[in-house]
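Researcher: I'd like a structural prediction for the single chain below. Treat it as a standalone chain; there are no partners to consider.
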Amino acid sequence: MMNPILRPLSPLALLVASCGAPISAQNTQNAGITVSDVATFDQPWAMTFLPGTDAALITEKEGKLKLWRTGASTSTDVAGVPDVAYGGQGGFGDVVAAPDYATSGTVYLSWAEEGSGGTRGAVVARGKLVLEGTPRLEGLSVIWRQTPKVSGKGHYSHRIAFSPDGKYLFVSSGDRQKFTPAQDLAVNLGKVLRLMPDGTPAPDNPFAAKGGVSAQIWSYGHRNVLGLAFAPDGRLWDLEHGPAGGDEINLVQPGRNYGWPLVSNGDHYDGKPIPRHDTRPDLSAPALSWNPVIAPGNMIFYSGKAFPQWQGQALIAGLGSGGLVRVSIEGEKAREVERIDLGNRIREIEQAPDGSLYVLEDGEGGKLRHIAPAPENLPAR
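Model: Treating it as a single chain, here is the predicted structure.
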């Protein structure tokens, strides 16, 4: 019998399309998995577990960084955080631990920063996390900025991912709702960037010879990349919001042009059509697209033992779809397998060290929820 909250695509599921669609919260339990509410945060955006500890860091958009310990119902403010340009989609963004965190204590953070004349742009910084005494950041220093800063408060993207070997820092940089910069190799908006851990361009990037910010670019023609993750085979994938339709997951390859705003599998919000990907075979098409949208939050590739049947698959946090979307990767294509209805907009999903999952609900009072196998479905030891 199919688990009642694990369901294949249906017309009803596909109607949950709008990024702003309200979804009623609910508690979920059944014979397949258990979902329990753990703690509450205000507008949480990202989460990362700290290697070798029982703790995780969680960002809140308005400008707080929280230290939460497994099993706790409360969290602690981390001192030494920066001022952020809060508003719209802006504020605190991603947080990840450096590959050498166990010895360096270094963490990476992204946020929206004020510029001159009402402009804004995303930045990435790194600093040392000190857990003794009052948790705090020391030596926080910006190592990358979106160039140029522009008006508006949307499409920062600012997701962070390290390559599996720890040598390279990848950053997603949204088009800032300006469309054409995504095709302009002289700016770093609408791009996926490949940097060294100190924020300098990786020396053998596709456009290194152009110099300047062009040397940062790994791929271009992106809209608003909110998922950036490496699969178990070492390949990089992204997850991005389309316009009115056309959310997509892409295999991100060096030097490729992913088409925005020249093509999309969605249309402009005012109804103006956009040519479809299949009209431009010279541009890289998505491995999978959604129309209506799922309005993704982020994604991970599952590698734990708690859900062995999910290993190697992409697990996507869905804002519009109100839960998780499970996707099977098949070569350079992808296929949606099923959805897990959590009854609310899900901003973030993270895998815990024990292979269970944690998700963060979107918005004020967003719950941190723990997903684990039901007792009768625990994997054999």
